[in-house]
């Protein structure tokens, strides 16, 4: 601890934070979410033998948050805001209303073709999330370029390359967005050269997908107590993720209209890709789904299948799917060992099982609803048995390296 660092007992701070949330009229849902993240902070401090909070410890909590597989990735922003709020409390400052700078407008000299590019993406059928990402990153790029050039026709390859090389606050996604945007400008004769080729390529390491063995998935499912309505719902959610590889966003959007009882299929428009997909239910999935619908689902005006177990019986969210999965990993006594433990891990385990069995990538692509075949090939990296067949023999050490490792026979 540094000298004069502000400290406050964690129990006292929790009480003050709770009163602040109530005073500022946070909703019950927001209050519950923040207090759950506060509990993770308490665990973090307890593991380190700390009984008091300091801004420095709050910083370390955020720094290590992504490394803790038991935490919900969707709550990361809540964790960052929590620490900011706690820092304000221990410093006796009022809650600030906004932490991020207001979104800078597109510079006037660039706005016409920025708007045309956005409209082009919409007409091409881009999803809402894609439109939002391209809009945000393109705007940031144009704001930065406005400090260097007055118009598109004055932009040179050197300007563009220098901008990306010396901008250390641009996320990796902005590079691919920039390539598409500048290619669009060239195709429409706004620029004389295709400047997209001047945007540097970032090759970020792609982490291995978090997967679990068939035995672990079976243990997870066996941990669900299916005699109660809540267990019936949770079991159906887990079966859809682990046996059909459905994304949590698609699971929570399911309605009765998506199910064909005669053909035993589930037909959806995927939330992430907007691509139609039809999945065939096996007997286990069908049984779990209809057991919940007939014996566990509360009556509700909502057309969504999966509802909260308590009134007012609103549809569950993708974040709730994460909590459901994490809950039964813990009940089953399955150690994550650095792996994620949400529904996407079950989807990845399903994909890996298909690849391991030698199912063609095109079939895996269709089963998972991937728009790109390379996305399905990603799961071959977890198939240790087949990768072993590609391994080369280790060459016999020679020269200085042999001497270093003590292989005197190779030296002689």
Strand percentage: under 5%
Major β-sheet strand ordering: 3-4-5
- CATH fold call of the largest domain: hpI Integrase, Chain A
- Gyration radius, to the nearest Å? 26 Å
Q: Report the major sheet.
A: 3 strands, antiparallel
What coarse outline follows from CA principal-axis ratios?
globular
Helix content: 40-55%
Which stretches are low in confidence, meaning pLDDT under 50 for 5 or more residues running? 98-102, 407-412
Question: Architecture of the largest domain, according to CATH?
Answer: Orthogonal Bundle
How many discrete domains?
A: 3
Overall pLDDT confidence: 82
**CATH hierarchy class name of the largest domain:** Mainly Alpha
What does this structure look like?
The strands form two sheets. The chain has a three-stranded antiparallel sheet, with no helix packed on it. The protein starts with 7 loop residues before the first strand and ends with a helix. The chain contains 19 helices and five strands. The protein folds into three domains: 8-90; 108-198, Orthogonal Bundle (DNA polymerase, domain 1), CATH 1.10.150; 214-385, Orthogonal Bundle (hpI Integrase, Chain A), CATH 1.10.443. Mean pLDDT is 82; it is low at 98-102 and 407-412. A hairpin with a 6-residue loop joins β4 (265-269) and β5. With 412 residues, it is mainly alpha-helical.
Write the layout of secondary structure elements.
Elements: E1 8-9, H1 10-23, H2 28-47, E2 52-53, H3 55-65, H4 76-90, H5 108-123, H6 128-145, H7 157-166, H8 173-187, H9 214-222, H10 229-243, H11 248-252, E3 259-260, E4 265-269, E5 276-280, H12 283-295, H13 318-331, H14 343-356, H15 361-368, H16 373-377, H17 384-388, H18 399-404, H19 408-411
Antiparallel strand pairs: 1-2, 3-4, 4-5
């Amino acid at each position: 601890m540094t000298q004069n660092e502000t400290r406050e007992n964690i129990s006292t701070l929790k009480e003050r934070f709770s009163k602040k949330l109530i005073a500022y009229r946070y909703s019950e849902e927001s209050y519950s979410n923040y207090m759950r993240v506060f509990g993770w902070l308490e665990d973090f401090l307890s593991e380190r033998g700390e009984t008091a909070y300091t801004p420095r410890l709050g910083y370390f909590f955020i720094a290590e948050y992504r490394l803790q597989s038991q935490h919900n990735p969707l709550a990361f922003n809540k964790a960052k805001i929590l620490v900011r709020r706690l820092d304000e409390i221990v410093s006796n400052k009022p809650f600030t209303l906004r932490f991020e700078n207001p979104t800078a407008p597109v510079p006037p000299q660039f706005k016409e073709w920025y708007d045309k590019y956005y409209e082009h993406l919409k007409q091409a059928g881009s999803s809402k999330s894609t439109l939002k990402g391209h809009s945000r990153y393109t705007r940031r790029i144009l704001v930065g370029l406005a400090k260097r050039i007055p118009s598109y026709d004055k932009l040179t390859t050197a300007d563009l390359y220098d901008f990306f090389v010396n901008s250390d606050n641009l996320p990796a996604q902005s590079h691919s967005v920039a390539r598409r945007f500048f290619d669009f400008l060239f195709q429409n004769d706004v620029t004389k050269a295709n400047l997209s080729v001047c945007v540097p390529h970032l090759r970020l390491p792609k982490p291995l997908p978090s997967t679990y063995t068939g035995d672990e998935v079976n243990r997870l499912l066996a941990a669900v107590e299916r005699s109660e309505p809540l267990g019936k719902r949770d079991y159906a959610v887990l079966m859809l993720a682990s046996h059909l590889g459905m994304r949590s966003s698609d699971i929570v959007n399911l309605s009765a209209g998506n199910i064909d009882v005669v053909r035993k299929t589930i037909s959806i428009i995927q939330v992430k890709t907007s691509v139609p997909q039809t999945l065939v239910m096996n007997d286990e999935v069908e049984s779990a789904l209809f057991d919940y619908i007939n014996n566990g689902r509360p009556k509700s005006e909502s057309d969504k299948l999966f509802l909260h177990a308590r009134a007012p019986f609103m549809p569950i969210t993708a974040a709730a799917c994460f909590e459901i999965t994490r809950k039964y990993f813990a009940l089953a006594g399955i150690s994550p060992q650095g792996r994620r433990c949400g529904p996407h891990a079950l989807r990845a385990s399903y994909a890996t099982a298909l690849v391991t069995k030698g199912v063609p990538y095109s079939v895996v692509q269709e089963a998972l609803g991937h728009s790109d075949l390379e996305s399905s090939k990603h799961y071959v990296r977890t198939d240790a048995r087949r990768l072993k067949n590609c391994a080369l023999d280790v060459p016999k050490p020679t020269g200085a390296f042999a001497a270093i490792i003590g292989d005197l026979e190779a030296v002689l």
